[in-house]
Amino acid sequence: MGTYIFKRLISIIPVFLLATFLTTGMIHLSPVDPAEAYLAAAHIQPTDEILEQKRHEFGLDQPFLIQYVNSIMKICQLDFGISYVSNKPVLDEVTLRLPATFQLALGSIVIAVLVSIPLGFLAGVKKNSVIDHFSRILSFLGASIPSFWLGYLFIFFFSVKLDLFPVEGIGTWQHLVLPSVTLALPLIAIYTRLLRASVLENLQQPYVLFARTRGINEKTIMAKHVLRIAISPMITGLGMNLGKLLTGTIIVEAVFSWPGFGRYFIEAIFNRDIPVIQCYVLIAASLFILSNLLVDLIQMYIDPRISRKEGQQQ
């Protein structure tokens, strides 16, 4: 287990180097001059002298490989540069907004798990029942309704008409409900169908028949055997969506004016705030890797067969 975790952590290094290379390359090939973008954000009239000074200050007058190595050295020191707009360190700006995004992502994951596990499991066990048909309708709606449209519907009905939840902002649990549900509904659609299909598949496996012939209680079979194995694809999907939620809540944050990392990234794109964009790409890559590592460890705990396979491969 320790060797496996170490190898997975080591695998972050080439991904980090590739992400740094791509972001540096995009800046190098982009038609937008970072020096001009900085002066435009600072409302300074660009002149040839000022542009040359800023290019030298940002190291843009150096060869690409030197810029790449310098970027790696700075990032290893957690130095992502200075924001063109706020003129503050990018890391300080990001750490100020990441907790709000983590809060929103965690809320949506909790709602999705609490709804999809019992709904998907019962839909699989009671095939073609009322609850199965209900899960199909809910999954269809969750997969087909765009998040921004769903968010505006929630605002209209629950905030404007019923006055139950705030329209925007952050602060209390009421502020968290609508954006979390908006993010959770598409996840519920995916996880419910994944779990249902996995339950139906596992009910046909020999170990279920053997457990029944041994006289084991049906509830025990379902809870300790079928659900334990059937939930594996859902956990895999959860790991893939966790990184997406932490970096891809852009639309929902914009709809509900949520002061998170995704909304900050959109503002950086409009303002051509290149240090912020570069920081976002690197953090996104790291979060995807770490979330998938976490899910792999959970999978190994739930299904010991995975642990044995890893040991044989090593």
From TrEMBL:
Record localization: Cell membrane
List cellular component terms (GO): plasma membrane
* Residue intervals passing through the bilayer: 9-29, 104-125, 137-160, 172-191, 281-302
Q: Any idea which UniProt keywords this protein has?
A: Cell membrane, Hydrolase, Ion transport, Membrane, Nickel, Nickel transport, Transmembrane, Transmembrane helix, Transport
What is an example of a GO molecular function annotated in this UniProt entry?
Answer: nickel cation transmembrane transporter activity
The record, for Gene3D superfamilies, names: MetI-like (1.10.3720.10)
* Stretches assigned to the ABC transmembrane type-1 domain: 98-299
Has UniProt tagged this entry with the keyword Ion transport? yes
Q: What is its main location?
A: membrane
Asked if the Swiss-Prot or TrEMBL record annotates the protein with the keyword Cell membrane, the reply is yes
Q: Tell me which InterPro entries the record gives.
A: BPD_transp_1_N (IPR045621), MetI-like (IPR000515), MetI-like_sf (IPR035906), Nickel_NikB (IPR014156), Opp2B (IPR050045)
Topology in membrane: Multi-pass membrane protein
Pfam families named in the record: BPD_transp_1 (PF00528), BPD_transp_1_N (PF19300)
SUPFAM superfamilies (UniProt xref)? MetI-like
Q: How does it assemble?
A: The complex is composed of two ATP-binding proteins (NikD and NikE), two transmembrane proteins (NikB and NikC) and a solute-binding protein (NikA).
Q: Which NCBIfam families match?
A: nickel_nikB, Opp2B
| Family affiliation | Belongs to the binding-protein-dependent transport system permease family. OppBC subfamily.
What's the protein called, per UniProt?
Nickel import system permease protein NikB
Species lineage: Bacteria, Bacillati, Bacillota, Bacilli, Bacillales
